[in-house]
From TrEMBL:
Species for this entry: Pleodorina starrii
Protein name: Cytochrome P450
SUPFAM superfamilies according to UniProt: Cytochrome P450
Annotated residues for binding of heme: C566
UniProt signal peptide: none
Keyword Oxidoreductase: yes
Cofactor: heme
Family named by the database record: Belongs to the cytochrome P450 family.
Single Gene Ontology MF annotation: iron ion binding
Biased composition (Low complexity): 525-555
Keywords, ordered alphabetically: Heme, Iron, Membrane, Metal-binding, Monooxygenase, Oxidoreductase, Transmembrane, Transmembrane helix
Ranges for region Disordered: 383-428, 516-561
Length: 661
């Protein structure tokens, strides 16, 4: 046998000198054929269960599948358009991965209550931010890891604890106010020509508000949640938010581009790409910051058992298998995840609130009137930072360092220079008072419905066995995507969803809950079939009594739903309420013409509000529509935000001014 083998691999074989090459080639072909048979055939004959029964938009590209249509910054609008055409459950193919998009609140609630496994996208984000293998409870695919951290840290977000964290929020808000007021000093008289268009009185000024907001929220998270005395003193604090945001942007690109993700991880990438090298440096800096924070928390004395503040919960976190206390290096992914989750979502939500306030000046005035009437952030709430500044200077002299103000990303430290203000916690409204303001909360809810900062979050992967869903049996390994944006904007769930209407929340306190309508509708429309004909579409049985007896399904879920919903929502919504109330009580906000959604669009929107006519509801909404212009400004990502937010602020004369007495 050996002889015949060597014959076919030697130049004395049937093809002469080519024999060995041909033999190798034939072997290779054999391997490829074997692989095709073992891997490909099962794929072809894999049971698809009821997947094929779901409608699907036309595939944009043979290889990319529907991903091709989603390669745009506002892809949530494309999916919304499909929802309108193909119903509340339909399927997409992203490369080779089947994804089921769900905008039916009952089925979405069923998925989030019963399917725990997140997709790899979550761990990808964690690893870009924290380094290879460094995943937090957010990104882990290990349920024991998730359960351990969630169970230990969830008590940290009780309302009792949020009241404790609130002092840190007010300190950070004082710096935001200082930085905005400084813009007034610098920009006074600039852009005065805009006054008439914006209907403001007195002086107004232009401000790029995202960076100061992000900085404020980062401080609120570190000083509030982790009880760090003054985050501005931490080495690397000034660059932390920009570094995290640039890494998040990279992670977002990798989510849509697997080749980029693979390349990013290769050892050659930082040598050949300046961008990758910068990302690696940013990751090192961010990790070093979080590790120092973790070390600071762990260095504190053992907390008493009744202490459930976040630092204490993290302090008592143990390794899920060894049961040992964690080192700072082991704890940094969780600290980093809480830091990032805490500031980016809240900053973008406040940004969207200011955007909505600019588009809907009448509603903005209603909220401002409510705040004025309730005396929220009124007289005495804002005080000069003078005495504190002096005290800090003394302390700094004591520590032998100069208390010099440093201009930081997003507006400067605001200490040691004139005009710095702070909020007096004795006079500022507390979390409970803010929660009781109907118009403020209706305004925030309506903004989070129309512009959720987690528009595309909450993806899950179906388990290793087939899953029953909405009366259908789906194969294992399918991505189940309860799309928050679709739930919030579907005409099946909301009347005139594109309209900004506070009354939804004022008239009906339960309006976020889905109204049960019997069987769930799964459209079996063919492409191009209109929504109006959906009534004749195939009805499939609903999720069944078990699911309907479960947690109340919501058509409003900015904080997700089920066991993996937002653990920090009490803190998040409190921070958002406090910041929106502070800003709208003191300033009248409008969009700068650079935003491309100027007074004309705002006026059209206001007119729409008046007439109840609404804004165009098609995917792009027509070239001039507000929806289209908003979509053009939107960057859909792990945290969905505006590409930029440039505002014109004018003081509410006599409404907040003069408090700094
Ligand atoms: C307005 C602000 C916020 C919004 C809109 C928001 C939204 C969300 C959503 C939708 C999820 C669920 C994702 C999923 O289903 O996979 C989530 C998860 C999470 N959020 Fe938030 N969030 C906000 C603020 C915060 C804050 C302030 C913190 C804490 C500091 C936080 C910490 C977390 C964590 C740790 C998770 C993962 C929970 C788990 O895996 O069990 N979030 N958030």
């Amino acid at each position: 046998m050996w002889d015949s083998l060597s014959f076919y691999y030697s130049s004395s074989g049937p093809a002469g000198a080519w024999t060995p090459f041909l033999a190798v080639l034939l072997n290779l072909l054999g391997v490829i054929l074997a692989l095709a048979l073992t891997k490909g055939l099962p794929l072809l004959f894999k049971p698809t269960y009821d997947l094929r029964k779901l409608p699907s938009p036309p595939v944009g590209d043979l290889i990319l599948g529907h991903a091709k249509s989603l390669l745009r910054p506002d892809y949530h609008r494309v999916i919304l358009d499909w929802t309108r055409k193909y119903g509340s459950i339909f399927r997409l193919r992203i490369l080779t991965q089947w994804t089921v998009v769900i905008t039916d609140p009952w089925v979405a609630a069923q998925v989030l209550a019963t399917v725990p496994r997140r997709t790899h996208n979550y761990s990808l984000v964690d690893e870009v931010l924290g380094g290879p293998g460094k995943v937090s409870m957010f990104g882990t695919l290990d349920e024991a890891h998730w359960r351990n951290v969630r169970k230990t840290t969830a008590p940290a977000f009780s309302m009792t604890n949020v009241r404790r964290y609130y002092g840190g929020v007010l300190s950070a808000a004082g710096e935001l106010l200082t930085s905005l007021e400084r813009h007034l000093d610098q920009n006074l008289d600039r852009d005065r020509h805009q006054l008439e268009a914006y209907g403001g009185g007195g002086c107004c000024w232009v401000v790029d508000v995202e960076a100061p907001l992000q900085r404020m929220m980062l401080r609120a998270t570190l000083e509030g949640l982790f009880e760090v005395p003054d985050a501005r003193d931490l080495p690397g604090f000034d660059l932390l938010a920009p570094r995290i945001l640039s890494l998040m942007a990279e992670a977002n690109r990798q989510i849509t581009d697997p080749i980029r993700a693979a390349w990013f991880r290769s050892p050659l990438a930082p040598l050949m790409s300046k961008h990758v090298a910068e990302c690696r440096r940013a990751t090192r800096e961010v990790v070093a910051f979080h590790t120092r924070t973790a070390a600071r928390l762990l260095a504190r004395p053992d907390p008493s058992p009744d202490n459930t503040l976040l630092w204490a919960c993290l302090h008592r976190l143990r390794h899920p298998t060894t049961g040992r206390k964690l080192s700072p290096t082991q704890l940094h992914p969780e600290v980093g995840m809480y830091t990032t989750a805490g500031f980016d979502t809240t900053a973008s939500t406040v940004g969207w609130c200011l955007y909505a306030a600019s588009l809907h000046p009448q509603q903005q005035e209603r909220v401002a009137a409510e705040l004025r009437a309730a005396g929220v952030f009124g007289r005495g709430a804002v005080v000069p930072e003078q005495r504190e500044e002096e005290r800090e200077a003394q302390e700094a002299r004591g520590r032998g360092r100069a208390a010099e103000p440093s201009e930081a990303a997003g507006g400067g430290k605001g200490r040691g220079t004139g005009g710095a203000v702070r909020l007096d916690p004795r006079v500022a409204p507390g979390p409970d008072e803010l929660a009781r303001l109907p118009l403020l909360n209706a305004f925030i809810n309506e903004t989070m419905r129309l512009y959720p900062s987690t528009a595309v979050s909450a993806e899950r992967t179906s388990p290793d066995h087939p899953v029953r869903l909405g009366g259908l049996t789906l194969p294992p390994g399918v991505v189940l995507w309860p799309l928050v944006y679709g739930l919030h904007m579907s005409e099946d769930n909301w009347e005139q969803p594109e309209e900004f209407r506070l009354e939804r929340w004022l008239d009906d306190p339960h309006c976020a809950l889905a109204r049960p309508t019997g069987d769930r509708v799964v459209s079996e429309q063919q492409p191009g079939q209109s929504r109006q004909r959906q009534g004749q579409a195939g009805r499939v049985p609903g999720p069944g009594p078990a699911a309907e007896e479960g947690p109340a399904p919501r058509r409003f879920m900015p904080f997700g739903e089920g066991p993996k919903n937002c653990v920090g929502q009490n803190f998040g919504i409190t921070v958002v309420r406090a910041t929106v109330a502070l800003l709208l009580s003191r300033y009248r906000v409008a969009l700068h013409p650079d935003m491309g959604v100027g007074p004309a669009a705002a006026a059209a929107a206001a007119e729409g509000e008046g007439k109840g006519s609404g804004i165009s509801s098609s995917c792009n909404g027509g070239s001039g529509s507000l929806a289209a212009r908003t979509a053009a400004l939107t960057r859909v990502a792990v945290v969905t935000k505006l590409a930029r937010l440039r505002l014109v602020l004018s003081r509410r004369e006599g409404e907040g001014e003069g408090d700094e007495a």
